[in-house]
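Structure in, sequence out. Go:
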């Protein structure tokens, strides 16, 4: 991918990700997360992983974001006063931001991070490679994630019914 395309999209991705974390309004933060997830899908397309990009849009930018917005609306965050973070949190976040900026500058200046390990295998991002990896190497985390999402949905329904009663 040409640097002319990569760096502006990467800068926009970082700006949207920072908006997710730093914006006080949870709905606008969730919308910035949708933009972040769409840009990640664009990067997957540039890596020739079209199936992963499509799953990124369908699963995360679609279904998971609907679940997030449902929880945001259920909790009604506008009704409570937001608390200010202490100086320790600001210092930690600032330090992590400096580390991220240093790493980004180092990589942009030509730093290497082990190029041998970054080469994708043949068929990377295709349906067969994704299915083989998902149902062999990552079967347990996949199933645990599905159970976790099921518990979250049941918990949201229980909380919603309790509030209606």
């Amino acid at each position: 991918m040409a640097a002319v395309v990569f760096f502006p999209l990467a800068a926009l991705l970082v700006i949207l990700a920072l908006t997710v974390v730093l914006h006080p309004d949870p709905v606008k933060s969730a919308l910035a997360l949708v933009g972040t997830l769409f840009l990640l899908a664009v990067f997957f397309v540039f890596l020739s992983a079209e199936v992963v990009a499509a799953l990124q849009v369908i699963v995360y930018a679609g279904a998971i974001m609907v679940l997030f917005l449902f929880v945001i609306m259920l909790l009604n965050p506008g009704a409570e006063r937001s608390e200010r973070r202490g100086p320790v949190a600001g210092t930690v976040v600032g330090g992590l931001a400096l580390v991220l900026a240093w790493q980004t500058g180092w990589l942009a200046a030509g730093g290497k991070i082990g190029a041998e390990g970054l080469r994708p295998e043949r068929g990377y991002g295709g349906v067969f490679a994704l299915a083989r990896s998902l149902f062999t190497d990552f079967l347990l985390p996949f199933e645990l994630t599905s159970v976790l999402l099921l518990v979250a949905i049941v918990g949201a329904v229980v909380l919603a019914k309790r509030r209606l009663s």
